[in-house]
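for the writeup, i need someone to sanity check this before i put it in the appendix. the sequnce is what the collaborator sent (i think, or maybe the updated version? ugh). structure was predicted straight from it, no edits. if anything looks off just tell me and ill rerun, i have time this weekend
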Amino acid sequence: MCRVLPWLLCLLLCLPAHSAGGELPLPRYIDLLRADGHKVLYSNSLVHAGQRVAAVEVSIAALRAALARFGLQLEERGEVFVITRGRVEPGDGGAGALPAGEPPLETVIVTGSLHRLPGAAAGSSLHRFTQADITAVPSLGSDAVRATLRLPGVSSVGISARPRIRGGLSDELLILQDGVELLEPFHLADYHSPYSAIDYHTIESLDFYSGGFPSRYGNRMSAVMDIRNNWREDDYRTDLGVSSFSQYLHTRGDFGSGPGRWLLSVRRGDLSDLADYIETQSGDPTYADLGLHAWLPLSGASDLRLGATYAEDDIIFRGEDERARSDIESSTLWAILETRVRRNLDQRITLSWLDLRRTKELTSGEDEPKGGFLDHRQQVNALALRGDWALRRGTSLYEFGAQVGHGDGSYDHQSGIDRGELADLLEQTRIIERDIALDPDGFSAGAYLQAEFLPTRHVVVQPSLRVDVQDYYLEGGSRDQWSPRLGLEYHFDNGPVARLGVGRFAQPEGLHELQVLDGRERFFRPQYADQVLAGVEWRGEQLALVAEVYHKEYRRPKGRSENAFNPFVLLPEMEPDRVDLEPERARARGVDLDTSWSVSERWRVYARYSYMRARDRLDGRWVDRRWSQDHTVNAGVNFSHGGLGVGLAATWHSGWRSSQLPAFIATGNTVPLESTLNSASLRNYYSLDLNVSYALELGRARLRLYADISNLTDRNNQAGIDYDVTETDDGFDVAPDGEVLLGRVPSIGVTLSF
């Protein structure tokens, strides 16, 4: 593929910048209008791919005329166009329209991007969430990012808010806000990241790519989470609230009489209840995060966007023989200039700055000869300048862009660890002493070129090429990665869309990702994955069906360290089951099925099934990854009427992997940990989750009450195995002790909007 695809890309990019005449699916036609700067909103129950529009002219006037054929109309609300059901005067028998005087039935549930640059890519797996979608999903602590954990192909046991997508590692996810990368946007990041640092009040939409994402997104192999800020306009400007996990303020307004707008989000709270899963008496794990955003129109053709985020954790855990402290501060600043250079050419210039500071201290002094200390300090600064351009010629789109950045890091690490007698039995290094001081710094850069055009009225072709380079490697000089990709879509006349995506996705280690905590003093070579994605999608007025198959072949996967028995512990670096893995290759393949049905205006149900198998090749043999969920089922129902909203969701999947030891180890014998890695399956996972909310209008204010209950049935979901080792006259008795996490977790909250 590597030799053939670049030539194919060059050929496709050189094709004429026009497409065949004929008709386009209505959603695709609207995408072209959005790329031209128009803000068009619509409901999926009104607009679907089975509706076709002539592609002779792309304009609001042409859209208005085309919508009339489907019993729809275009309402202009300020700068936004909203598609609603049309009204019919007496005697008019227009299909699909409502009688005169009847209000439109649907509410707008899918929002358009406020960015002028194009959105989705052909051949990609894209799930789009609005704020209403996010709040309707039952989630622990009403966490916005946790809505993605219910998507097909996502592995989770309910602990971490950071998803593993289609067999990939958790760090294979790129998270963007306003197009700017966020590093570690999770609270308790050193303890499995159970809570995100993104307030859902600030989210207008969340685009989640689980495969085949556009080449403008770089440096991650599995998924992209693209978050856009909420600039909604309604009767309320301020949200003030309190919940089980936070106190928060979200407010927005205008700059005087001008057209500019701003929004502010502040949250603070403690996560003591969430921290209980590590089975220790915790101190006061507090957190805070802040988001400040501004939008300033400079002229009719230019906008300036300013943004800042800040998040901090101050965490102390105290057990009988253990103490852990983690302090993390993350700051991001950015400025974005969006300009309409001419009618069919848009540009976006982004300047961003990042500062990440981390301190982690661990001490353990158990009665047995096991324990030690760890003192880890890290700081990373990065400055980046990026430019993106989008050119539309007829129904063809061309995107190109480049980014250059410089960063510097500092690592200061000391540790002394005794992993105890069990480490000897597992042939693991028992005594570890480290003293590491490193100061990596250097440049990184990237560029991409992508085209999208329609050679026939049914076919969408999207070739692209991405190049990335880094020079901060401590040895071996610079590294570069070439990532060719190709996306294809075929739109059938009766509505279904078939898609195919094939390409390479590369991922170097970032300056902040040097694995010093596990004693590594060198960056791994950039890894990459060759991926193939094929799918079929059909969307009607009420029913939507999506089926996809994928295959990911990893080359040069980076080394990593894991806990083979139970990863959900307070001091993972000190445990005897901490094993270093150096995969030769890795592979993930699977099938995802997704069905959603809008039964009525009030009821919506969905059902999702995934089959997935993810493996590493270690020392010549294939070994399942710990989070390889063979079978996963997600199902849910949502009800809304007036101010009442109820969501019930169920998740079941095959048990995660763990390592199994024999019941007895004779004196003089050992069991190499690598030989037992992920050799056993844990109990299957099941969780039933509930969300209830009620909004009450109080004059000029609104009061919203809500409650989430995770694991409603209080099921003992198994997360790992601990082993108790007892010495006998002729060896060691080894007794397994299953560890369970997260019983029933309720959270309640109230928000006052005014």
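The domain at 5-99 is CATH 3.55.50 (Phage tail protein beta-alpha-beta fold). The CA atoms of residues 707 and 748 lie 4 Å apart.
thx in advance!!
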